[in-house]
């Protein structure tokens, strides 16, 4: 179990690496999900706030898959809190999209089913009255051009 020290966005938390003399924050990217970009209004902030409500200051369990780190040297993990897979919860409630992180696919079917449920129920980013119109990747590409 490890304590969440900070929530960066809807798909990244930070923990304190206490193996060094002065603890530093280490980013943990939640496997299999893609939250809205933090600048993608209102969804980015809402996703971050949801993850913060769930995990900030709490003890979580990290489960790793095939790859332990991504190309940015961030740890990749499934985050568990009190027996609940947080990666799935964020997708199921409509705060994040499924984004396969090959070869890390242990829970991909679970995540896909959770996304379908959120879409059918019109939750979060799937709300028919205020849907998220661009994927986070599309949003970032468009905003890099400006």
Structure description:
By secondary structure, the protein is an alpha+beta fold. It contains four helices and eight strands; from the N terminus they run ββββαβββαβαα. The strands form two sheets. Strands 1-2-3-6-5 form a five-stranded mixed β-barrel. Strands 4-8 form a two-stranded antiparallel sheet. Strand 2 and strand 3 form a beta hairpin. The relative contact order is 0.19.
Can I get a quick summary?
With 146 residues, this protein is α+β, with helices and mostly antiparallel strands. It has helices at residues 43-55, 86-92, 108-121, 136-144, and strands at 2-9, 12-17, 24-30, 33-34, 59-63, 75-81, 84-85, 97-98. Helices cover 29% and strands 27% of the residues.
Query: How many domains make up the coordinates?
Result: 1
CATH topology: OB fold (Dihydrolipoamide Acetyltransferase, E2P)
What Rg, in angstroms, do the CA atoms define?
15 Å
Strand content: 25-35%
Please report the distance between the alpha carbons of the first and last residues.
42 Å
Uncertain segments: none
- Largest beta-sheet details: 5 strands, mixed, barrel
């Amino acid at each position: 179990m490890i304590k969440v020290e900070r929530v960066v966005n809807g798909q990244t938390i930070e923990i304190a690496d206490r193996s060094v003399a002065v603890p530093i924050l280490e980013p943990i990217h939640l496997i299999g999900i893609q939250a809205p970009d933090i600048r993608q209004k209102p969804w980015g902030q809402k996703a971050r706030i949801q993850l913060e409500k769930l995990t900030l200051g709490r003890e979580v369990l990290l489960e790793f898959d095939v790859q332990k780190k991504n190309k940015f040297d961030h740890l990749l993990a499934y985050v568990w809190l009190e027996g609940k897979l947080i990666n799935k919860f964020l997708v199921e409630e409509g705060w994040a999209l499924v984004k396969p992180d090959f070869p890390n696919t242990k829970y991909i079917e679970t995540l896909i089913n959770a996304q379908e449920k959120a879409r059918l129920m019109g939750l979060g980013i799937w709300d028919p009255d205020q849907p998220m119109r661009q994927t986070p990747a599309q949003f970032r590409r468009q905003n890099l051009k400006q």
